[in-house]
Amino acid sequence: MENETRSGAELVNPYNDGDPKARQVEQMFDSIAPAYDFMNTAMTFGLHRHWRNRSLSDALKSSASPANILDIATGTGDLAFYLHRHLPGASITGIDLSEGMIAEALAKLKKEPAEAARRIEFRKADATAIPLPDGCMDLVTVAYGVRNFENLRAGYREMRRVLRPGGTLCVIELSCPANPVLRRLYDIYSRNIIPAVGKMVSGDSRAYSYLPESIAAAPQREAMSAIIRECGFSECRWKTLTFGAVTYYIATK
Question: How many Cβ atoms sit within 10 Å of the Cβ of residue 57?
Fold first, then answer.
């Protein structure tokens, strides 16, 4: 609801310039779009592909042969292309706030076989106001996107709205290790090394400082699962990967 009190990562902004968070997030991803794929691989040592594969493999066990899939915060289309390779008969829609990210995804799509262009669509759209009818999707995915939402619960309610009854939600999100020693090492890496490399590669001095700040502020594990259930999903479960650096959530409408 519009009157909900914002908290956690909803209050962490990329630039702190007075614009609404959604607008700042859009500007940030427009800025880093050309460097996004390289930085994803570099800062995760390529593990983002393992995290994607494990999470989606689990999600697809709960959503046998989905015909219609929505990938929210699609970025440069990584999940959409992966899903097309594994489910070539499915229709896949990827949405993102950032025109820059959508442009990168469309450039990739042009290099794919013609069948991909018939099955995958990318469009600019807000996850808290998805321009799709009720109950039209079998599977909704969102990777590394929900902590960027200006209103997390509004986003989850929209995901539930566009899912058919029995449809599956898969959320993949960065998280902080629970082990104190690993958390200290993680903080050093995420708050010092990643921002320095990110600034050098992308030219954006704030984007990769915002990253660890938003991760730390976002609800994690059981707290995130509770919000998903609060927004009307059932059977929500979560699993951590790589010592807790990533958590994925599987829920059912």
Answer: 10
Contact 155/73 with Cβ under 8 angstroms?
no
Closest CA to 75 of 130, 131, 45, 34: 34
Q: Are 235 and 226 in contact (CB under 8 A)?
A: no
Which residue type, as a one-letter code, is found at position 131?
P
Q: Which of 80, 83, 73 is nearest to 126 (CA)?
A: 73
User: What is the C-alpha to C-alpha distance for residues 159 and 176, in angstroms, rounded to an integer?
Assistant: 25
State the Cα–Cα distance between residues 3 and 159, nearest whole angstrom: 20
| pLDDT tens readout for residues 50-81 | 999 999 999 998 877 899 999 999 999 999 99
Q: Virtual CA dihedral for 143, 13, 30, 194, nearest 10 degrees?
A: -70
For the residues 123-137, what does the mean pLDDT come to?
97
- CA distances, 147 to each of 107, 115, 143 (Å): 26, 33, 10
- Tell me the DSSP string of 102-171: HHHHHHHHHTS-HHHHHHEEEEE--TTS-SS-TT-EEEEEEES-GGG-SSHHHHHHHHHHHEEEEEEEEE
CA distance between the termini of the chain: 19
pLDDT of residue 3: 53
Percentages helix, strand, coil for the chain, rounded to the nearest 5? 50, 20, 30
Q: Which of 29, 30, 18, 21 is nearest to 155 (CA)?
A: 21
